[in-house]
Amino acid sequence: MPIPRARISSRSSLFAWVLLVLHCFFLANFVTAANFTLEQVMASPFPANLVAAAHSPRVAWVSNAKGVRNIWVADAPEFAARQITHYDGDDGLPIASLRITSDGRTLVYAGGSETNENGRVADPTNGIWPRKQQVWAIDVDAGAPRLLGEMGCAEEDCEDVQLSPDGQTAVWAARKQLWIAPVSGATAAHQLTDLRGDNSNPKWSPDGRHIALVSARGDHSFIAVYDFGREEVRYLSPSADRDGMPRWSPDGRHIAFVRRPGIQEKAPLIPVRPNPWAIWVADSATAEAREIWHSGNEDNDSFPSETADKSFYFADNDKLVFASEQDGWNHLYSIAASGGSATLLTPGSFEVEDVTLASDRRSVIFSSNQGDVDRRHLWRVDLQGGKPQPLTKGETMEWSPVEAGTGGQVVCLGSSATVPAMPFHLGAKGREMMARQALPADFPSSQLVTPRQVILKSEDGLEIHGQLFAPSGRSQPGPALIFMHGGPVRQMMLGFHYMYYYHNAYAMNQYLASLGYVVLSVNYRLGIMYGRAFREAPNASWRGAAEYKDVVAGAKYLQSLPTVDSKKIGLWGGSYGGFLTALGLARNSDLFAAGVDVHGVHDWSVFLPHWENRPGAPDAREAEKLAFESSPDAAVSTWKSPVLLIHGDDDRNVPFGQTVDLAQRLREQHVRFEELIFPDEIHDFLMWKNWLRAYGATADFFDRTLKASGGGQ
User: Fold this and answer.
1) Is 341 helix (H, G, I), strand (E, B) or coil?
2) Backbone angles phi, psi at 32, to 5 degrees
3) Which of 63, 224, 226, 675 is the least crowded, having the fewest Cβ atoms under 10 Å away?
4) Is residue 413 pLDDT above 70, yes or no?
């Protein structure tokens, strides 16, 4: 707003005018001024990797408090929580693959990130010496952590430490082979196998004398069994297909596994092809196997890659539990190990997510959105069938269930719209928080808004869910933001999220609302929990980016609100959300005035050879053209709105080059862009201070581009 110079006649009148302007400003913004800090709303300790001892009423979990990761335990029935490790500092060293011995006395875990393409463990602290990914053990009641060995694994999925049934030995995959060490640390870890291929996913037999593993050979894979005391392995009915997910029967006589077709070269890229699969059961002694169940060949019959591994169990009474989307929803089924018809355990228009075999080994406990589509609750169902029984309900959320020992005491992680993720045990009074002392006293629960469920229609008629964060007391038109999650196989919900990345994003949306922004989180097509047809929508992603229609629908919804200035709508998101942010700014700078693109994808075409894994595809050139046209880079000539680019240059999910290339294109088009680059940081920022810097810069950028007069262009 220009100063009316003709009215300024003296220093005193200037001072009076400034006071008047400030008074009006504070009156206009009083109801939307932040009354808590970004640090406060992001300071809650995030719990993860909840585990339970098989024969002890003890549970353990990893707590990340402002970048300081430590392990906590609690014992039934009181579940008084206590911290076991005492690491200190925001050091960027994650703790993964937490395991607990069956007696609950010892914990084993992996420390440090996976390695990048150069074999380096991430170190965003600016250190000059390489870090290591290591396996550690600690006794719960006494002692300090002891080093068992190194991992050096290049994939997150390889952070898979497995304890022997007696709890004396740990085995893990590293550098494409299996390694083994005594949990006592008495001797150093040593290599257990030296097989061709990439060998991983070790599973102990119930008697601890054998280990089943997956030996991947590129276009095919085998299930191998290693016998202690022998110098050879045996392969279970080897074929030209891809075998995985070995599971031992409780008596050790059989091994169930999943078989999928091998890689077919020169298959077309653009058409989405069904991915059929089958369940096989092998005699563990003879290695002979037979198929007991197979899927159909329609799209819904495809292998449910997001949930299959964590839903596959060999239970008692020779029952197998598995997940399938054959009816269009991700559901649980049981089947006899000898074969026959599968029994649907969880019928209905909802989806199952976390699944754990109960301590009785004859039922499962799972999380789902049954009857509450944008939340999670816990249920139990018998493997023989019958109606699932709810364990939790209401306006809270629960996930990652376990049972403490053999007493049937259920422990889980949970949250609500205003309470961050914490561990809980389920008792007669409902769910009761554990480790309450770890929650900061000034966490602003009472000052957070409760997001409202929003259901809108995209231009092609698809129903889209979202969550609306409305600033308290807002009555006049003002700036608004659309948040888009990554994945894209994710769902944002009506509460603090169960993933660390989106737990932080939810806190950020709360903070933005406190600053006066109306924030709409859009669950665009390709996300989970709304059925397979929604998740596998046609012409989406690199095949046409149809999901962008849902972002536009979100903008039109915001424009219809009396509290939104239609010329001050911004976009923000990370990863796939960064892609959609960039796409919105490139295609519709007339609609979106500014955006924050956090490690987004900007050119799909460079990923095709890696993601689709179909060498020599006959439509490769056409697919590359379609992928590029579905990317922000293809529309950069119409990009006008300012953008903040945020990226860590050791990102193992979205290559840093995606941002490097986009920056040059924006510079050529004279588009205003700002950068916040984190040297040696990865995709899911390892350091809490980097989350604060990224989100602080985001809020500041939107304040400067959307709250300023005239918007961001």
Assistant:
1) coil
2) -115, 5
3) 675
4) yes
pLDDT digits (tens, 9 = 90+) for 590-645: 999 999 999 999 999 999 877 667 778 899 999 999 999 999 999 999 999 999 99
User: What pLDDT sits at residue 699?
Assistant: 98
Token pair for 168: 């004396």
* Tally: H helices and E strands in the chain: 10, 40
Dump pLDDT digits (tens) for 659-691. Answer: 999 999 999 999 999 999 999 999 999 999 999
Q: What is the DSSP annotation of 619-664?
A: THHHHHHHHHHTSGGGGGGG--S-EEEEEETT-SSS-THHHHHHHH
Q: What are phi and psi of 3, to 5 degrees?
A: -80, 130
Q: Do 104 and 56 meet the contact criterion of CB atoms below 8 Å apart?
A: yes
Residue type, 179: W
Query: Which residue from 707, 692, 706, 697 is spatially nearest to 37, judged by alpha carbons?
Result: 692
Burial of 265: CB neighbours in 10 Å, binned 0-12, 13-18, 19+? exposed
Residue 422 contacts by C-beta under 8 Å, 6 or more apart in sequence? Answer: 44, 45, 47, 413, 414, 415, 433, 434, 435, 436, 439
- Phi first, then psi: give them for residue 525, nearest 5 degrees: -55, 150
**Tokens standing for residue 114:** 């996976």
Mode of pairing for the β-strands spanning 643-648 and 673-678: parallel
pLDDT at 30 over 60: no
Predicted confidence (pLDDT) at residue 713 exceeds the cutoff of 90: no
Q: Looking at the DSSP assignment, which residues form a beta bridge with residue 95?
A: 111
Residue 332 pLDDT exceeds 90: yes
Q: How many residues does this entry show for the chain?
A: 713
Q: Catalogue the E-assigned strands of 331-395.
A: 331-336, 343-344, 352-357, 363-368, 377-382, 389-390
CA separation for the pair 161, 195 (Å, rounded): 19
pTM attached to this predicted model = 0.94
Give every CB contact of residue 327 below 8 A, 6+ residues apart in sequence: 300, 344, 347
State the residue for tokens 């020599």.
Answer: 616
Taking residue 17's Cβ as centre, other Cβ atoms within 10 Å add up to 14
CA pair distance 652, 630, nearest whole angstrom? 22
Buried b / exposed e along 103-115 (16+ C-beta atoms within 10 A):
ebbbbbbbbbbbb
d(CA 111, CA 220): 31
In three-state secondary structure terms, 152 is coil
Other beta carbons within 10 angstroms of residue 142's beta carbon come to: 7
State how far the alpha carbon of 45 is from the alpha carbons of 62, 270, 467, 552, 604, in Å.
9, 44, 24, 35, 36
Residue 64, φ and ψ in degrees, nearest 5: -110, 100
Between the CA atoms of 702, 704, 705 and 708, what dihedral angle is there, to the nearest 10 degrees? Answer: 120
Q: Is 84 exposed, middle or buried, given 0-12, 13-18 or 19+ CB atoms closer than 10 A?
A: middle
